Amino acid sequence: MEFRRLGRSGMKVSEISYGNWLTHGSQVEADQATACVREALDVGITTFDTADVYAGTKAESVLGEALKGERREGLEIFTKVYWPTGRGQNDRGLSRKHIVESCNASLKRLQTDYVDLYQAHRFDYETPLEETLRAFDDLVRAGKVHYIGVSEWKASEIEAALKIAGEMGFDRIVSSQPQYSMLWRVIEAEVVPLCEREGVGQVVWSPIAQGVLTGKYLPGQPPPEGSRATDSQGGDKMIARWLSDDVLEKVQQLIPLAEQAGLSMAQLAVAWVLQNPNVSSAIVGASRPEQVRDSAAAAGKVLDADLLAQVDAVLEGVVTTDPGKTESPAKRP
Fold this sequence. Notes:
eight-stranded parallel beta barrel; 10 strands
């Protein structure tokens, strides 16, 4: 496993992070989830990403149980706050009340005294940014959080937060967690240039485009049984955007490129996002331990310029680049 600094901070993270969105507590039974976490540890992954909302808070509990007994100082545990975790009006958003209460609940579920990175899961237009940042800063000062990050924030929102933190002496944002893959490149135009200047690293999710970039989904054919596209608990909705024949036909054309590079399709996809120097880590999920091992092998791989150009040529016409696609709900859900 290779390691990179998280933005301009002093903390290093594994190039491959293990994430349990749409798996632990929902798609995958606890024993299998634990087996995937053990496999992640065996291949050198030290960075684990989750969120309070995943599987209605169950994902954090499963991860906490799976990591029990590990040396805490040897791990980087990330979680997030924003989406509803209860029925009350304050069980959501980025108010001081919800941030503090959600952090305390996450720590209990994760069975830890602190998290290494606490992330705002979306931007909250109903809470003053100063209130949000002060609450995060207080958690850092209390020792419950080491670093602060955001997820799916626009460049303008990140920039505003950095400005306020600088003026008020708050702990700075060190990371951004956006969706990023060969097919979804909306961060490249605005978020990445800003973050490169400001020392904010990307911890990217869905580098394999929910599994589409493995090549297992074939044009003109129904999705494989047991795949994310057949998961009625939410996975099918997330992956639907990629399942058109024009996208799937182009993905099939990537298979010879992966073979020439000596990589599996998943490894090619993960290695591709890691070629971006602003990416600190790529989050991979899994329902089976062998999937963890396959993706983790992408760490340290260098793709030459010719291969990157061929990937661009193959995918021309199906890549999403509009930075406006990054957006948070206008009102709390």
